[in-house]
Amino acid sequence: MGLELRQHLKLTQQLVMTPQLQQAIKLLQLSRQELIEAIQQELLENPVLEEAVEFTKAEGPEDRDASSAPAELATAALSCNERDLMRNADWESYLGDFASTGKQVVKETEIHEEMTPLEGRIAGKPSLEGHLLWQLRLSDLDETAQAIGEAIIGNLDSRGYLAATVEEIAQQTGATPEAVEAVLCCIQRFDPVGVAARTLQECLLIQLEVLGQDDPILLALVRDHLEDIERKRFKPLARKFKIELEDLRAYLDIIQRLEPLPGASFGSEATAYVSPDVFVHEFDGEFVVSLNDEEIPRLQLSPHYEAILARGAGAEKEYIQEKARSAQWLIKSLHQRQKTLYKVMESIVRFQKDFFRYGVTKLKPLVLKDVAEDIGMHESTVSRITSNKYVATPHGVFELKFFFNSGLSLDDGSEVGSESVKAIIKQLVSEEDPAHPLSDEKIVAILKERLDINIARRTVAKYRTMLGIESSSRRRRIL
User: Fold this and answer.
1) How far apart are CA 34 and CA 112, in angstroms?
2) CB 144, CB 176: distance < 8 Å
3) What integer pLDDT is reported at residue 161 of this predicted model?
4) Strand arrangement of the beta sheet that strand 390-393 belongs to
5) Strand pairing partners for 156?
6) Neighbours of 196 (CB within 10 A)
7) In a 3-state reduction of DSSP, which class is residue 56?
8) How would residue 131 be classed by pLDDT, with cut points 50, 70 and 90?
9) How many other CB atoms sit within 10 Å of the CB of residue 293?
């Protein structure tokens, strides 16, 4: 059988995402800060695009018309289709004009000033390594000991514990194990006290030494019985040391004031602040939605390129036309993003009105499909627009994903949101008797008796774990 070339015709259908569509989808899922950065990047790369100048009250309509006239001329070289799209687009209101009440009402309530969180300006946080090296330089150790100290500090983990053995540091620095132990003993008494310890017991014992605590029972509790303390085996400990529970509680109070993780307060990450994308506030008994367009640049086509379009030709003119089309699509995509965000938030408010009025305990079950059907959009669009977006409410700042949660059945056939149940469990635990904490079975019984919520014990345990609440045995306290 020989090889030969043949031509075939094949008709297929496939979905092709244009670069413009990809850009629009990408804008939907960007957080507010990422959106601002993306716009700034586009302003740098696209010479046709520029940030619109805000007009002051002193400028009259004539000034506005005069400044916008060149932009109209700049569109003359575009096709009729493109001119129509740009003429019909509401460029001036593509950001910030979505609100369920008039702008004057929002302005009068001054909701942005009241609800916007204060973003503190703080200096960089010192690292644990830098803090210890600073103390090492101020110590009276010689050069050899300082070199050993640098090796020790360089082998600390994020908790402040020594992650290498004395022998390994001795081999690394060429010193004897005895010399490393001497420097280690010195560093362990730096601030924070107990840093560079190898075990929890060593860390706490060093702190007790510095505090001048030499009670043999206290030292024995830390050295040999931390596991018993963790498991709340108080009565056996009291019997062993022949003391009353009241005396044991005094010892435990001292131990609880010690720092088990001396390096924990020296986190390397800076504090992250959240700037809400949307504000929801109550006005005359109704909830008002308004978008946060602060710091988001208002875009327009630059009027400085109309002369180039008028006299240009060939590649130069094609380049300007391409950039003008790109700028036009970006402005349109931004307008669509803000419009979608507003519609989704307004739908969430309709579904979760009880939450906005009463708080987390009234959060209802909600899925993406409910909102998608309510506003006539696809679930994937709702999922993208709610990613990395935050809303400021009368009850705090929440991620939009927070409002979507599963439901648990009530005896009357209705449902309650899982987030509401978590909030109720958290409230029950905060109000419990520390000497007799609520078990998971007891929480199940309370939810059933008071709120008609049917929930399994393992579900309570799961929610408790998600909330970072320990089991009842670990929550028990000596009074």
Assistant:
1) 21
2) no
3) 95
4) 286-291, 278-283, 390-393, 396-399
5) 162
6) 27
7) coil
8) very high
9) 16
Q: Which two tokens stand for residue 354?
A: 């009880």
Q: Report the C-alpha gap between 196 and 166 in whole angstroms.
A: 11
Phi/psi of residue 410, nearest 5 degrees? -105, 165
In DSSP notation, 186-210 reads: HHTTSSSTTTT-SSHHHHHHHHHHH
Q: What stretch of H or E contains 422? A: helix 418-430
Which residue from 167, 178, 173, 165 is spatially nearest to 146, judged by alpha carbons?
Answer: 173
Q: What is the DSSP letter of 327?
A: H
**pTM, full prediction:** 0.60
pLDDT in tens, 313-345: 678 778 888 888 888 888 898 999 999 999 999
How far, in Å, CA of 227 to CA of 224, rounded?
8
Which two structure tokens, joined as six digits, stand for 151? 């090796």
CB 280 within 8 Å of CB 341: no
Helix axes 315-351, 32-45, angle to 10 degrees: 170
CA distances from 109 to 106, 292, 297, 397 (A): 5, 15, 24, 19
Could you tell me the domains of the chain?
29-53+60-91+101-114+275-379 (no CATH), 128-256 (1.10.10.1330), 406-475 (1.10.10.60)
Q: CA nearest 163: which of 122, 196, 193, 140?
A: 196
> What is the amino acid identity at position 445?
A
- For residue 267, name the pLDDT band (cuts at 50, 70, 90): low
Question: Are 401 and 345 contacting, i.e. CB atoms less than 8 angstroms apart?
Answer: no
CB–CB of 259/207 below 8 Å?
A: yes
Within a 10 A sphere around the Cβ of 115, how many other Cβ atoms? 19
How far apart CA 95 and CA 442 sit, in angstroms, is 51
Q: Which of 258, 283, 265, 273 is nearest to 205 (CA)?
A: 258
Q: Residue 390's beta-bridge partner residues? A: 399
Which tokens in the block code for residue 52? 């619109």
Spatial separation of the C-alpha atoms in residues 320 and 314, rounded to whole Å: 10
CA distance 255 to 232: 14
